[in-house]
Amino acid sequence: MPQLWQTTARDRRGTVDPVTPAAPETPNNAVRLRPEIAALPPYRQGRPAPADGYKLSSNENPFDPLPVVVDAITASAASVNRYPDATALALREKLAERFGVTADEIIVGAGSVALIAQFILAACAPGDEVVYSWRSFEAYPGLCTVAGATSVQVPNRPDHGHDLDALAAAVTDRTRVIIVCSPNNPTGPLVTADEFAAFMAKVPSDRLVLLDEAYIEFVRAESTGPGASVDGATLTGRYPNLVVLRTFSKAYGLAGLRVGYAIGPVPILDAARATAIPLGVTGQAAAAAVASLEPDAEAELRRRVDVIVERREALRAALIAQGWAIPEAHGNFVWLPTGEHTVAVAERLFDAGVVARAFPPEGIRISVGEASSVEVLTEILGQLVGTSQA
Ligand SMILES: *Cc1c(COP(=O)(O)O)cnc(C)c1O
């Protein structure tokens, strides 16, 4: 089979020696990249949905932005010739008031993904380990690799939730960061407050724990008792090694602007600030976030979250009634355990106008979107349930 290097050789010498071909090595003029980075899968955003279809592949909020939020963005556009406030103080002060902490105990970033990257960079030297559940958020492995850290993936329990005992047991001398994602993207279960407390008691207090709560606003579990969800807002100041991460991308509907935040001990946040690319949060993003936290705006946003939660419950109940083994769903998405049928089911959904996120050979994550998408999903998945589960 002709290879790139052979073509090059033929171009130069006019012929390829069939007996002793040149070794198929990297041409010596190829730019030297870190091999582990060059080997990373390229980022592929979900396919665009067909014109009258549904993009349910990125856990986005299906509602248009609030008019007051659009106004705040428009107003701040008038000063884009200036750099933004480097630490988004107005936003941090608003969040600090909300969580009963000082503004120094809050850091903002260009999405909470950027913050997770900063914390890993702050804590890990090459070869240090980051422990997290798997399957979980698809960004974690790449962020670890970019930092030169080693991913240690601990399998989820059979119910698709985190196995916190196994996570704690996976901590070694080399572990610098443990990530807990609750509710877990893409599978849906949450970590309970009791499970998390027991986990924190086992993890050495000099190892950073990141509690990723990108979907906490969609949780409707009891607030007390054994099923109560962990809630980072109630844990501020409790642990010297805990940082809680949240985002405006999902419940607040600002995915396109890139703004998230972390709450935690000042020395850890200072270290994460040092690893940031400066000025990542634009003035528009900060203004939109501040406007979203105003009482009237936030009340409306929370009503929308209630609608999405209702839709999620309706969708999950309908799919379970059809015979699908849908795990608990505490975010704005449901998980279909399609196993080796994953690609085929994703294709059938696509043909029906639905773009979902396929993770072959495990399953499919479907975001809860427009009301009419629920009917389309139940119709098509009802036809597939008998032949498509793992
Ligand atoms: C969406 C998401 C985030 C945050 O995304 P940003 O848009 O970067 O704020 C973080 N963690 C998980 C698990 C997510 O699903």
Automatic annotation (TrEMBL):
Q: Name one GO biological process term.
A: L-histidine biosynthetic process
Provide this UniProt record's keywords sorted from A to Z. Aminotransferase, Pyridoxal phosphate, Transferase
Provide the positions where the record notes the PTM N6-(pyridoxal phosphate)lysine. Answer: 250
Q: Where is the Aminotransferase class I/classII large domain?
A: 54-378
Name the family. Answer: Belongs to the class-II pyridoxal-phosphate-dependent aminotransferase family.
Please give the subunit comment from the record: Homodimer.
* HAMAP family associated with the record: HisC_aminotrans_2, Phe_aminotrans_2
Q: Which protein, by its recorded name, is this?
A: Aromatic amino acid aminotransferase
